[in-house]
Amino acid sequence: MEIFNIFGRMGIRGDSQVSNALSKIGNKISDIGGKMMGFGTALTAGITLPLAGLVVQGLKYSATVQNLETDFKVLLGSEEEAIKLTSDLKKMGAETPFEITGLSEVTKTLLQFGISQEKVLPLMGRLGDISLGNEERFKGLGVVIGQVSSLGRLQAGDLNQLINRGWNPLNEITARTGETMKEVRKRMSEGKVSYKEVEQAMVDATDKGGK
Fold first, then answer.
1. DSSP per residue over 137-166, as a string?
2. CB of 97 within 8 A of CB of 133?
3. Which domain holds residue 107?
4. What's CA 45's distance to the chain center, in Å?
5. C-beta atoms surrounding 203 within 10 Å
6. Is 13 domain-assigned?
């Protein structure tokens, strides 16, 4: 047979030597096949697992968006407005460091404190600038500004909370009015620093690039 002639030319003699040679060749082929199968499995896993993760992440995101639309429908009393607001938050999330969950949390807070829908997104943009992209600070500022808005004026406790989150609105107020810090603090203690002044202070702070 031709195979034996080949082994003969290779210097392999006898059935046992031929058998051993064939066995070694078979083992090598089997080993190569096993490695190729292992590579194929690893390659498949390397492609399939990330894709599966993306699918799961996408499903979670879709569920989050649907839940937000439901929540905002309750707050706004309009499905159309809820869908629009959710869409605006998705866009903001794509353009800022904040996740849609954090943005929606601050949005709900501001709405619940009575801030009108048309003012919420511009206000959140300014809070985002003041917070320098820090989500926890952003959320905290949202709560305090909501409190000041609801009360209609700035109190010492709210001022301290704002300062603890990295922003002192009195700096902008004194710059605008020409008052000293002592004078504006006295006016605040008398309940005469309005939310509108704080709102304007946010505009002044962010127009200068934030604090």
1. HHHHHHHHHHHHHHHTB--HHHHHHHHHTT
2. yes
3. 62-206
4. 27
5. 13
6. no
CA–CA–CA angle 106, 111, 117 (5° rounding): 105
- Residue 133: half-sphere exposure toward Cβ, Cα within 13 Å: 5
Q: What total number of domains does the chain contain?
A: 1
Mark 150-189 as b/e (b = at least 16 C-beta within 10 Å).
Answer: eeebbeeebbebbeebebbbbbbbbeeeeeeeeebbebbe
Distance CA 54, CA 88 (A): 23
Tell me the per-residue pLDDT of 28-67, one tens digit each, with 9 for 90 and over.
555 655 555 665 566 565 666 665 555 555 556 677 888 9
Question: Would residue 25 count as lying in a domain?
Answer: no
In the chain, which stretches have pLDDT less than 70? 1-61, 208-211
Q: Which two tokens stand for residue 15?
A: 């059935």
Q: Is the pTM of this model over 0.90?
A: no
- Nearest alpha-carbon partner for 161 in 187, 179, 143: 143
Residue 185 lies in a domain: yes
In a domain, 100, yes or no: yes
